[in-house]
Amino acid sequence: MHHIETCRTAVLGGHVDACHSCGHREISYNSCRDRHCPKCQCLRQARWVSQRMERVLPIHHFHAVFTVPQELKPLALHNRVRFFELLFAAASRTLLALGRDPHRLGGLLGITAVLHTWSRTLAFHPHLHCIVTGGGLALDGRRWVAAPGRGRFLFPVKVMARLFRAQLLAALARAHRRGELQFAGSCAPLAHPAAFARLKDHLYRKPWVVYCKPPFGGARQVFHYLGRYTHRVGISNQRFIAIAPSGVTFATKNGECATLAPDEFIRRFLLHVLPAGFVKIRHYGLLAASRVHRQLAEARHLLEPARVTEVRSDHPVLITWRDLLRDLTGIDLTRCPVCGRGTIVRHPLPIAALDPPDTS
Questions:
Q1: Quick check: 63 and 230 in contact, CB under 8 A?
Q2: N or C: fewer beta carbons within 10 Å in the chain?
């Protein structure tokens, strides 16, 4: 919260941009760069999309979403890291197992999975967004196997939901037996093995919600679309309608809005701050780090045999944020916005002497 409160204020310091020609001066304050800040994601998102475009295959892709039932949310809330790890594992194993099944595809898929924890009203709602290749590299590595129906169909969603349910519940049961889960608040009774077994049996009989959207139009559309998911936070500034001491009003969906008391709004927002160091974007199958240099290259060669593969340096030169901003918006920060001729010279400002709040 301290990062977000002080973002782009004098507390973090800044700089003065001065034109050497007309004398125009403008003060800008530094960003906090926190991944949960709604103001600090644009350039990071653009850089990520640019890097992913180097690996995307020239085929259709699908967008699959894996959600968990309401009964598991208290357990997830009290076991964030462990539950999120099991959620990633269950969803990825579901897709990879169905992909390897010779009766369905018989190939290795490429998967990028992104964790979200919120609903449009900022309620705690953990779920995974997965971008999946519309086909896979055959298990013998000699051919590309396209998804059924000329790439228009991936797997039946009911089959995906049942396998995902079995994977996640089995993983939670193992974690319970090993004492890896914490039980507090409303999920405290689940510490007893009999109570946990009853919940598991109930959830096995309940249908789970998994859906898969139709394929995207092309490779570029895939990751520009995914970029809107990878670096999104619980709420963006554009969704705020009114902020007052009595309540915070923000847009939800279908033209509707919600109003929360300020303390309740802050509580809900903080539900979606991820544990320190937790990786919320993960890659599996052909896109896993151990496979991109060999099996992904083999898949690309099968799909584009005439393409000349560029030899890339092990230490690529990263484009600066100023150049990236110019490419995205056309704004050149080295030129004066007033006279258009002068060169902008940047002078640093000192950081304001304000300590973060004492949370002890």
A1: no
A2: C
SS3 263: helix
Residue 86 neighbours by CB under 8 Å, 6+ apart: 168, 171, 172, 175
Which amino acid is present at 43? L
- Give which of 71, 74, 70, 68 is closest to 183, Cα–Cα: 74
Q: Is 151 helix (H, G, I), strand (E, B) or coil?
A: helix
**CB of 249 closer than 8 Å to CB of 258:** yes
Between the two ends of the chain, the Cα-to-Cα distance in Å is 15
Element (H, E) at 95: helix 80-100
Q: Kindly calculate the radius of gyration of the chain based on its CA atoms and give it in whole angstroms.
A: 24
**pLDDT at residue number 163:** 98
| Nearest of 277, 160, 157 to residue 214 by alpha carbon | 157
Identify the H or E element spanning 200: helix 193-205
Instruction: Tell me the per-residue pLDDT of 98-122, one tens digit each, with 9 for 90 and over.
Output: 999 999 999 999 999 999 999 999 9
Which helix (H) or strand (E) segment holds residue 232: the answer is none
Q: What is the pLDDT of residue 70?
A: 95
For 56-98, write each residue's pLDDT tens digit: 888 888 989 999 999 999 999 999 999 999 999 999 999 999 9
pLDDT at site 351: 67
pTM of the model: 0.85
Q: For residue 272, what are its two tokens? A: 């979606």
Distances, alpha carbon 237 to alpha carbons 41, 42, 163, 253, 263, in Å: 12, 13, 38, 15, 18
In this prediction, the residues of the chain whose per-residue pLDDT falls under 50 are 308-315, 353-354, 360
* Edge-to-edge strand ranges of the sheet holding 144-146: 107-108, 135-138, 144-146
Residue (of 70, 318, 324) closest to 187 by Cα position: 70
Cβ 224 vs Cβ 48: under 8 Å = no
How many angstroms separate the Cα of 262 from the Cα of each of 10, 255, 350, 356? 25, 22, 32, 21
What is the distance between the alpha carbons of residues 172 and 196, in angstroms, rounded to a whole number?
10
Q: Is 33 helix (H, G, I), strand (E, B) or coil?
A: coil
